[in-house]
Queue: 2 jobs
Job 1
Amino acid sequence: MRNTAGQSHRENRMATQRRTIDDTRKHLTAKLRLYWKLIKSLQTGLLLATGVAGFMSARCPALDWRTLLGMSGSLFLAISGSTVLNMWYDRDIDAKMLRTYWRPLPSGGVSPRETVVLGLVLSILGVGWAVAMQPLYGLVVFAGLFIDVVVYTIWLKRRTAWSIVWGGISGGMPILAGRVLGIAALTGVGQIDLIGVLLSLGILFWIPTHIMTFNMRYHDDYQTAGVPTFPLAYSFQMTRVTIAVSSLIAALTMGGAVMLLGMTWGYLRLLAVLSTALLLMAVYSVARPSEKMNFGLFKYASIYMLSLMLLLVLGAI
Amino acid sequence: MKKISVLDRIVLLIVGVLAAYQIVVGIEGFCTLTVLCYTIAFGVLMFAALLFIIFGFDILDSKLVVIVAATIPLILSLALIAEYLPSVRTVYMAFAVVGFGALAVTRYTASGAVATVVLATVHGIAGLLIFSLPIIIAVQGKTSPGFALVGVGGALIGTGGSLLLFLKLGRPILSRDTIFTVLPVLLLFMTAAFVAGLAMR
């Protein structure tokens, strides 16, 4: 009799433990999903791709997996960290916009305190890892994070439409950081060279195509939230012209970098085709503006950048 | 109207990648004019595939897209002429320029019937050249037999062009949905035939 009661008690305890483990697992999975949303995986992925392309552009040994993995890991953490800190600081803006009110912070999925701690931990780990790998590389990664979080998000984003320039500079940092580390892997000394600066400028001038098309699409949202953007500060048509001019400069600087890298004519031809297509779409958007064309340009700009990064990697191998 | 599916997008992405591959490595060793023509033709093909992916099949309703798409057979045929029939290169270049100009002007100014006749004529001549020239040259033994695949690509581009042309004329050979179902696959086989044919020349 006592034996049976003891057995039953043990079974109950085991069932309770199993339930607790299941609940904890579910809770952790749900948390990780929310954290994943906080890092904007697509944007982080694209920036990470630029870092890898910068690294490979130095023609460093493609099979130097330790450095490549270290760079990918540190950049991923630093970019994710800065994105989480942006989300934390902009939670009031996100709550006002139809496009973003469902995000984990405004919807109450995660607390502000939890978010800022996560952002700081990711940032410190990312920058720390980067500095440990190569000091100059670490400094460029830190500069990207500082410009993005402090200069762009905290200082300028709510004050001027021109904050986009600083957003663009921070966007150009991963490719420059990758290039610095690639040179260091090749020569033992990290340095910022002309090609790295041109690649970085290419991203800086590409950013308006990416961001301003988005600003136009969600114009009402930005107006409601009181965030100054180019379409709000100037006009839609002025913004389209800015995008076209900016696309032209982005294409020219990227072209300059690819030429200095000494890539074969084949890659230059492909770059010319991809850039011409970007310019045609940007100019068509000025001549025949429509929301469909605007969003198409936004999508093509992402394809363009990803293709360029692939081109840099393949051209370097 | 048929919505573009994920599978369509994957097929079109492969078309884009094949065209990009051709631009980077597939056209080395030709004369400058031929390289330029192939770059434009495969570049437009790649861009067209990306436009389909971004905008869906609605993009075919745009007049500009019809004009740009017509450059593919026109410039591919010019590349073949420049390389294999240099004696008529200048004449054909003049035809290509005039044909393209007529196509662009009539698309915006002339009636639907006139614009379609111009499109059919320009497309027809260019398509026939892309179909017949590589096969004749391959049969004559001036290139390897595999080069005839470019002619197969020409036949496929002609088929696609005809399907879309009759659709525009309001007398479709196949239903609009069927055409849009086969179009990505047709583009894929066409691009693959061009790439393989030129690699085996």
Job 2
Amino acid sequence: MNIKHVDVAVVGGGAAGMAAALRAKKAEIEDVAIFEWASELGGILPQCIHPGFGLDYFKENLTGPEFIQRFIEKVGESRITVMTDSTVIELEAGCPNKLLVSRSKLGLEEVRAKTVILTTGCRERGRFNLNLSGDRCAGIFTAGTAQRLMDIDGIMPGKRIVVLGSGDVGLIMARRFAQEGAEVTGVFEIMPYPGGLQRNVVQCLEDYGIPLYLGKTVIEVRGKKRVESVIVADVDENFNIISDTKTEVKCDTLILSAGLVPDWRLPRILPPAKGIDIDDRTSGPVVNDLFETSMPKMFAAGNFLMVNDTVDDVTFQGELAGESAAESIKFDDMRTNRIEWRDTVPGEGIRFVVPQKFSGKSDVRFYLRVKRPMEKVWIEIPEIGKRFFKKIVRPAEMVKIDLRAEDINDTPRLSFNLSVLKRRGKN
Amino acid sequence: MIKEITCIICPKGCKAAVEIEDMQIKNISGLSCKFGQDYVESEAIHPTRIFFSVIPIIGAKNISVLPVRTKKPIPKDLLKRGMNEIRGIKLNPPIKMGEVIIKNFLDTGTDLVASRDAEPDIDDST
């Protein structure tokens, strides 16, 4: 088998992967390679044809294809090795790390890499993740699959649409279906608040008069060959179905938009390493403030690290991982080995905090998600006596807290707590 | 009159209260950046949206439809007419990102442009 040696192997050629590769290259790392299982770079963005991308990163309002083409062009101009149609199927940690790559038409190849950056993105929760019972008929798609069919392949998946879940992709697809003349009966969300961003609720549903039903869910699919209807029902505060609210809704297509999860399917991570530590709250890897996983020389960024709201954040994370990977090569004894990593703690009202570990030696941007929507709150970090006021927080919208090294210097840990505004003097 | 508008420029979703008198904006409150200011001003008086869709493209690599957008936002009530306007068009590669597909789209003064490159699909199996 052909063996290839690289300094940095980036697994996944979406926004995070390309940003990471470009940053490593900029730090004068010689051999940087991107492995991408699809036929072209770009990840999910080529199919996200709506605007709203790049507002933070480029200070421009771009569509997904426009945003990502800028990166594809930059990668093309740099001396980064790009391997498309190339799936990393196995990963064995070590010095060097070993990657087994399945390359379409070329067969298997082994790659040895000083560092690895995992940017495999996330996947959608499907019918069987949602325990959705009923007939196994055609016409059930995840929102991303419907998006790919419509906006890459030019195929209309259905005419009478029900959307289950109000995640961003679902809202965006509700609008796409309406634009193309399909009848969108409604978006059904089990939670008492929408799962997607506010701007998508406004621009995708309100603009097109598509109803959003909160506290309501699809409990059964009916249809012989194709979906013919779904049964919807209200839920109580413990998410139990309220039986006498069951209603049949006619449709030919059910679109699922009920959450995204970091994609661990490939590569398979092999022993002897104990595996990468996983944070149950994000379903992504545990990382330190260099975005290094529990496996030294293995980094993570983007939606594989945590499911993000915007590609801008994904890109910033990719850049940090790329920088860290470059640094770990330049300083081979890796300063990380000598650092005692300290823990962050998601406290009251906080679902997760990333990075999960920090050194106290550098400035850190912490990404947080709250558990439920709240207005006028403080995010308090008692260990360093700091708090940040937020007019509104929502689970759908990531909270970012920037702390300076001098602020966190000596603290043994950092916990983040949400508390409602109390009348007292300014901090 | 006070119009409540949810700002959609960024994920924050600020709730703006716009005070309007005789189609003139008197005051806007509740926003946290200048991008939002512009958006809320125009949303209150004449709402606009960037029009986007896809147009079939024959013989392109990786894609069967080409994503397109208007360079600038157009009046919101023209979005439906925009969909009719592009119906029936078929494109051929090569096309470059930013290339004009329809000039002065619906007489709005802005062009409909390609959102990405499209290269011809060359059969590389031989």
